[in-house]
Amino acid sequence: MKFGILINEGPYQHQASDTAYNFVKAALDKGHEIFRIFFYHDGVNNGTRFTVPPQDDRNIQVRWSELAEKHGLDLVICIAAAQRRGIMDEDEAKRQGIDGNNIAPGFRISGLGQLIEAGIQADRLVVFGD
Amino acid sequence: MTILHTVNKSPFEDSSLESCLRCSKAGSTILLIEDGIYGATEGTIISDKVKAAMADRTVCALQPDVEARGMKDKIIEGIKLVDYAGFVDLATENDTVESWL
Fold first, then answer.
1. Which end of chain B is more exposed for a tag (fewer CB within 10 A), N or C?
2. Residues of B numbered 4-33 whose beta carbons fall under 8 angstroms of chain A's beta carbons: which are they?
3. Which domains does chain A have, with CATH numbers?
4. Do A26 and B91 make contact, defined as CB atoms within 8 angstroms?
5. Residues of A labelled as active-site residues
């Protein structure tokens, strides 16, 4: 079965990002397809590579990047939510005249159309948030 | 059409479980996750409403979240504990998933 995942909460906030990660891993283990993971609202904060949690804590961002690389996942960050919260890729930084970018490996910035498409293409859209 | 409802807030901080119990239809499944698992505990102000819902709906709780909060021995009898794989199964068995955020 094809799953679309929507994450509306940032890392280390409550538990939504952790629950989503464990759900996605379990779905992949069962042979399901993850069509796309869309990060919206504070969820975009999952996609900055500048997070440096304490050594004995999980690194939520790195965990997403590694899972994406292993399974070829499509991790999409909402552009408007990202701009508000300072999540930039190279093109966006250039366009906005910002002197650097912080997007994490495996993530890409795009628009809400990607969420709508996930809702249409996936058999189930599962929402994790606050 | 069957719906999987997920509730992730404690019934003592948010009304999402009450709303879910009020709106969900017979035959649907309610999965309590994260702090929502407190809604699955025995002897609280909401446990009678949860038990009443269990007459025509299936109520489950996410086992890792129950165990993380030390609530395994306090869960209402008849509530099914599922792991993440079970969560995925519930999402596939039902026609749609509604997250009460």
1. N
2. 8, 33
3. 2-128 (3.40.1260.10)
4. no
5. 78
Q: Note the pLDDT tens digit of each residue in A76-115.
A: 999 999 999 999 999 999 999 999 999 999 999 999 999 9
Please name which of A60, A44, A20 lies closest in space to residue A109, comparing C-alpha atoms.
A44
From chain A, pick out residues whose CB is under 8 angstroms from the CB of B99: 126-129
Is ipTM > 0.90 here?
yes
Residue in A with minimal Cα distance to B99: A127
Per-residue b or e along B28-39, where b marks 16 or more CB atoms closer than 10 Å to that residue's CB:
bbbbbbbbbbbb
pLDDT score, position B52: 98
**Which residues on chain A are in Cβ contact (under 8 Å) with B34?**
14-16, 19
Helix, strand, coil % (nearest 5) of chain A?
45, 20, 35
| Tens-digit pLDDT profile for residues B43-99 | 999 999 999 999 999 999 999 999 999 999 999 999 999 999 999 999 999 999 999
Burial of A31 (0-12, 13-18, 19+ CB in 10 A): exposed
Residue A126 identity: V
The CATH label, of 3.40.1260.10, 3.40.50.2300, 3.30.565.10, 3.40.50.2000, for the domain at B3-100 is: 3.40.1260.10
In this prediction, residue A41 carries a pLDDT of 98
CA-CA distances (angstroms) from residue A103 to A24, B36, B97? 21, 32, 30
